[in-house]
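Figure 6 in text form: structure in, sequence out.
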């Protein structure tokens, strides 16, 4: 599911918050002391969940991709992993809590926190709190680096169906997903054009807990690179799950949103 996995990690985070294992307002070094001398030292769990960490970093960089084994090493490079990469991670920053700025590293760090506080692998947490409860037909796979650190970045429709109800995560966490986000921060970020098909209602969208949402419309959207899309419309009881690929990494995702709106029009008019 590529970056749609972020939305799944957000759901698991909600479960661990409800269990008292994670405080969304805590700064990251509380859970990962090795981040105390990095650019993440003033960032909170909440900032990670909402992509408002203030980290100014290109997550397509060679060193980041090498750390996770996505790109091969150059001849003069030594093998590394994500934990070692993070220990010296000091890119430029702006104060956290500002505009939405999408960065995959935020969710990768969140995955490490979930593992640290629970004592379980992220794959096991997803299996326990998401994959088994939705009755998934197929196994899900998590990419890891050479040290086994997880990347937090068919059964998609089942996940959407579970999110139509309050059965997967607590009502408190669902309410926070739908109504806790900052619409102005989202409008100032790079994802705003993706919801342009909603017209004037695009101003109601925010990014909250790893999902693009509109509380007013009752819509939650999970997005992945090159076209994976999950739209959950709680008001109309509609789920759209799209796993096909598109040549453009991000911006053509708006076409999936437009497709959903046409499907909704047909379904609602036929009723």
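Output sequence:
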């Amino acid at each position: 599911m590529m970056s749609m996995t972020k939305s799944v990690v957000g759901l698991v985070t909600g479960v661990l918050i409800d269990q008292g294992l994670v405080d969304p307002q805590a700064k990251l070094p509380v859970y990962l002391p090795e981040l105390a001398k990095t650019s993440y030292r003033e960032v909170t769990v909440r900032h990670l969940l909402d992509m408002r960490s203030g980290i100014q970093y290109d997550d397509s960089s060679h060193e980041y991709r090498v750390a996770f084994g996505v790109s091969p090493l150059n001849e003069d490079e030594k093998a590394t992993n994500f934990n070692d990469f993070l220990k010296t991670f000091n890119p430029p920053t702006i104060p956290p809590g500002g505009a939405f700025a999408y960065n995959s590293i935020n969710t990768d760090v969140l995955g490490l926190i979930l593992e640290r506080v629970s004592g379980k692998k992220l794959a096991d947490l997803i299996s326990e709190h998401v994959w088994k409860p939705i009755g998934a037909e197929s196994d899900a796979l998590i990419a890891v680096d050479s040290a086994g650190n997880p990347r937090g970045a068919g059964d998609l429709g089942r996940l959407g169906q579970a999110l139509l109800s309050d059965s997967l995560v607590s009502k408190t966490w669902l309410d926070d997903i739908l109504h806790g986000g900052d619409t102005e921060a989202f409008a100032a970020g790079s994802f705003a054009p993706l919801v342009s098909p909603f017209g004037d209602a695009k101003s109601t969208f925010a990014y909250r807990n790893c999902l693009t949402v509109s509380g007013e419309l009752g819509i939650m959207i999970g997005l992945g690179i090159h076209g994976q899309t999950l739209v959950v419309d709680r008001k109309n009881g509609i789920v759209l799950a799209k796993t096909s690929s598109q040549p453009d990494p991000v911006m053509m995702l708006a076409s999936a949103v437009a497709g959903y709106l046409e499907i909704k029009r047909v379904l609602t008019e036929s009723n």
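Caption detail: The chain has a mean pLDDT of 88.
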